[in-house]
Specification:
Number of domains: 1
Catalytic activity: O-phospho-L-serine + H2O = L-serine + phosphate; O-phospho-D-serine + H2O = D-serine + phosphate
CATH class: Alpha Beta
Pfam families: HAD
Order of helices and strands: HEEHHHHHEHEEEHEHEHEH
Strand order of the largest sheet: 1-9-8-7-2-3-4
Number of helices: 11
Shape: globular
Distance between the termini: 32 Å
CATH topology: Rossmann fold
Mean pLDDT: 92
Structural class: alpha/beta
InterPro entries: HAD-like_SerB, HAD-like_sf, HAD_sf, PSP
Organism: Novosphingobium humi
Pathway: Amino-acid biosynthesis; L-serine biosynthesis; L-serine from 3-phospho-D-glycerate: step 3/3
Helix content: 40-55%
Length: 248
């Protein structure tokens, strides 16, 4: 907690002269948030779902390159998403279940973070530029109460190469945070976590915007960061005693 110092100046000084791997900077006493809203891929889970799904179509390298550039903010998200989904046309829908089973695993500490915050009275929302077909089971496994995501279109047992419904992008993520905060009422604070350029508006809008092992642009936009370790570091930054963590 700091007073009388611009947060961006303090952040720069910490990064330059101290170089800590975990930090959370605020201009008020840090308290437990009433809303936790998080990205999914490479934040709550250890993979990028679309890249792993593309591996089942034999085009992982091609898709992963587009994903990386989009996460770094070098490509328009909607355009990059549409292009990647189009490359998956005619992939059997069964590949989604196979990918979930074989490739998708929670990030270490994810369930402890979610369940502990819920036990402290925090509402939890998973919002992702990924897909409901992955996000819904991940949310159930980790304990998230709401999911906002894209949906892969499927017909006759195969991916069509398109999406079913509107695109969930950076604007959607920020709008979801604002909507949830309005429902919680005055005085509530939000925690947002993410790792890519698509998470920046959400991270900036939260009282505590934490970049988890993030791309440079996302990290620069955050007032908190975790560069190594696992997601329980976020609980430590919030001052939650380990004895209060919900394990298992």
């Amino acid at each position: 907690m700091v007073e009388g110092v611009a947060l961006e100046d303090l952040r720069g000084a910490i990064d330059t002269h101290v170089g800590v791997s975990d930090a959370l900077i605020a201009d008020h006493k840090i308290r437990i948030p009433k809303l936790f809203i998080s990205d999914m891929d490479s934040t709550m889970i250890s993979a990028e779902c679309i890249d792993e799904l593309a591996d089942f179509a034999g085009i992982k390298d091609r898709v992963a390159d587009i994903t990386e550039r989009a996460m770094r903010g070098e490509l328009d998200f909607a355009q990059a998403l549409t292009e990647r989904v189009g490359l998956l046309k005619d992939l059997p829908a069964q590949a989604i279940a196979d990918c979930l089973d074989q490739r998708i695993a929670p990030m270490k500490g994810a369930k402890v973070l979610v369940e502990t915050l819920k036990a402290k009275g925090c509402r939890t929302v998973l919002v992702t530029g990924g897909f409901h077909q992955f996000a819904d089971p991940v949310a159930e496994q980790l304990g998230f109460e709401r999911v906002v995501a894209n949906r892969l279109a499927v017909a006759d047992g195969r991916l069509t190469g398109g999406l079913d419904g509107p695109i969930c992008d950076s604007g959607t993520k920020k709008a979801t945070l604002i909507e949830e905060m309005a429902a919680l009422g005055e005085g509530a604070v939000a925690l947002a976590t993410g790792d890519g350029a698509n998470d920046i508006p959400m991270i900036e809008a939260a009282a505590y915007g934490v970049a988890f092992e993030a791309k440079p642009k996302a990290r620069a936009a955050a007032n908190g960061w975790v560069d190594r370790g696992d997601l329980t570091a976020v609980l430590r930054l919030l001052g939650v005693a380990e004895s209060d963590w919900v394990l298992g």
